[in-house]
Structures are given as C-alpha cells and as structure tokens.
Amino acid sequence: MQRRQFITLLCGAAATWPIGASAQAVLPVVGFISGGAAEADARFAAAFRKGLNETGYVDSQNVTVEYHWLEGRYDSVPALVGDLIRRQVTVIATPATPVAALAAKAATTTIPIVFSAAGDPVQLGLVASLARPGGNVTGINYFSSELVGKRLRLLHDLLPKAVRIAVLINPANALTAGPTSREVQEAAHTIGLQIRFFDAKTIDEIDAAFATLANERPDALFVGGDAFFFSRREQIATLAAREKIPAVYASSDAAAAGGLMSYSTDLADVLRQVGVYTGRVLKGEKPADMPVLQQTKFVFTINLKTARALGIEVPPAVLSIADEVIE
Fold first, then answer.
1. Which residue in 43, 49, 73 sits closest to 256, CA to CA?
2. pLDDT at 33 over 60
3. Contact assessment for residue 116 and residue 95, using Cβ atoms and an 8 Å cutoff
C-alpha cells in the first residue's frame, strides 16, 4: 500500500472514533456555597449529594461539586461569587446562605441559582413569586424566621419563670439577623419578656458573649438561626452548659450536641431538596418555571439529659408535644 493511501485510510478511521476515546468529557460544575464549615456540616453536604443522586447525578462521576465553606466569613461572598461566574459554572447552589444567592442573582442572569432561605424569598428579592419565580433563581423556603416566635413561646412554656432572655445573633448575616431581631422583639412583647441582644460573628466573639452572659446571668438564651452558629453548635452548647444557661436553638442538631431544646425544620431534608432541584436544573429545567418549595415538616426537640444537668423539670404538657426526646 502506498504511503498516501495509508495516511488517507488512517485519517478516515480516526474521524469515526468516538469523542470519548480521544478526550474526556467535561463534567458540569455546581458551585456550592454554605455559610457553615465543612466538618460541622458534613451531614448536610451528604444530604445535598443524596438529592443529586435521586436525579441521576453522582459527584465526581457525571457532575463536579465545588464546596465553598464560608465559616461565617460572609464578606468573602462577592469575590467568591464573582469567581464562579467568571468560570461559568453550570449551577450555583446556596443552601441556608441567602446573602450568596442575592449576590449571585445581582451578578448573573444566565447561570441558574438554587437557594434555601429561612425568610420569605419574595421579600428578600430572590424571586418574583413562589409559584412562578421568574428569572434564573428558585429554591426552598424553610420558614426559620417565621418560627422565631414559636421557638420563644416554647422556651417560655418550658421555663415559665424566665423573664430576662439573652438573644445571640450574627450581625454579619444581616438577612437573617434583622428578621430574627424583629420577630423576637414582637414575640417577647406579647409574652412579657425582657430581651437583650448579643452580637457574635467569630469564634472569639462567641466566647466573649458568653463571658458577658456569665456576669449578667440571664434566665435563658435564645440562639438565632445562622449557618455559622450552626457550625459552632458544639461550642455554644458547651459554653451554655458550663455557665448553666438554658438555651433554645434553631436546629435539632444543636439539641443533639447538648443544647436544651430546639424547634426547627428538618434541615437535612431541606439540603436534600436543594440537591434534587439542582439535579433537575442540570437536566435542563428552567428555574423560572420551578415553584419555590415550602418545607412543612417541623421538629420540637428536648434534651432531657441537659435539662437534668440544669436542674430543670420539664412540664408534662411540654414533654407531651415534643417530637424528639433525647435521653
């Protein structure tokens, strides 16, 4: 066979080879942004992956998930979001971090964004309506802000003699801290409680807040819902136990870590739903046509071991309505 004929045959054969034989397919990329920390929030990252799996996506096989843990550093959001957009990731997922969802929405109208938010997504400016979000944003609303009043009332039911209530909030997360402050003040006024706010946005500031609490001796502590506080739940529960301050939290994981009580949504299920919605977007669905889901499962948890350590006898009426009791 002549050399020219051999080359022609070789080129013709190469043209029929499948693309995968000569180059690895590029996987879609999900930019995952959480206000918490990787180790503390590992269960929720797993729940997110479970949701992806339900839609046929497996991390590192047919999708790449880039995890970005803020650890309370909300001021890093603009630069992080800007980097994700410059690299044209396929989807941006912002569970429990509406500040990142809003930053992404302000920066792109093309990259889909899937959020979970405690407050009203319409009031936050994330979507036009719950039924028809419009634009490139959709997600899950888990009503944590709306549960603030209920959480404070349950604390009062458990500790009817408690009047002076300290409230721990993270001023760096204004989208959560603002609504929490308003809801607490309204509920406290109705019940007849005295409220004092304490700010903390770093690990050291949490320690400093408890040093002040140790001197002032409030009757109880209300820990505001915040991804950073969630990631520091063991630190907060340990300090509350050391100072013998009964506290109510915005997640059952905090009660499991030693907190006295919590009233919250099922956060793991929220993350699973964010994963499902992210998978559906990867399959081609448009966020504009995907209604914002509303989480309706709420859990009231009491840690009886912590109650005994604090010398608190839980009223039978309160114990009877608990969904989870930690012995």
1. 43
2. yes
3. yes
User: Are 234 and 151 within one domain?
Assistant: yes
For 248, list phi and psi in degrees, rounded to 5: -115, 140
What's the CATH code of the domain at 171?
3.40.50.2300
At 195-249, the pLDDT tens digits run 999 999 999 999 999 999 999 999 999 999 999 999 999 999 999 999 999 999 9
Kindly state whether residues 224 and 303 are assigned to the same domain: yes
* Assigned domain for 20 exists: no
pLDDT in tens, 118-132: 888 999 999 999 999
The Cα diameter of the chain in Å comes to: 100
- Tell me the C-alpha distance between 197 and 165, whole Å: 9
Pairing type for strands 298-303 and 261-265 reads: antiparallel
- What pTM does this model have? 0.85
Neighbours of 202 (CB within 10 A): 15
Instruction: Evaluate whether residue 200 is within a structural domain.
Output: yes
Q: For residue 251, what are the domain limits? A: 145-265+299-326
Residue 259: exposed, middle, or buried by beta-carbon count in 10 A (0-12, 13-18, 19+)?
buried
Closest CA to 139 of 110, 116, 122: 116
Structural Rg of the chain based on CA atoms: 24
Task: Provide the residue type at 24 as one letter.
Answer: Q
Alpha-carbon span 106 to 85, nearest angstrom: 11
In this predicted structure, the answer to whether residue 14 has a pLDDT above a threshold of 50 is no
CA–centroid distance for 3 within its chain: 65
